Amino acid sequence: MSTTARTCAHCKAPLPDSSPPAQTLCADCTHRADVFPVQALEGLTPEAFDALPFGVVELDPEGVITAYNRAEERLARRRREEVLGRNFFTEVAPCTNVQEFAGRFREMVASGAPGEEGLEFVFRFPHGTALVQVQLVFSAVAGRGYVLVQRRA
Ligand SMILES: [Zn+2]
To answer: Which residues have a beta carbon within 5 Å of ligand 1, which is an ion?
Structure first.
């Protein structure tokens, strides 16, 4: 047990003593896709990845989907079996194949440097539209991209 008071890395609220050392965000902030530390995604177990309260789509540098979590399945109303191995921008979510989304991702990949950008976006699903907050991330070291998706109220 540490005696040092720990605080949330984002909002500085005190963390409960019982929280695991790897946890750096308070309960409220772990539910926000826009402040989630993306480096932490790479260390998650499949169970923890699925338990995230916002959608996560993991992409290779070409935009091919390599992982898809449960929150994203619910948001998009698609099962991962339908999307894994397919291109997110051109096949699965063609509404994102525009400069502000796919174009930015391709620029991040081409630059070879880590990149992260937040944008508001309207997803057009077969079942309707959804206004979402998106964090678009590329990890140059891992050669992996992430699209974090959170529905806006
Ligand atoms: Zn917090």
So the answer is: 8, 10-11, 13, 26, 29
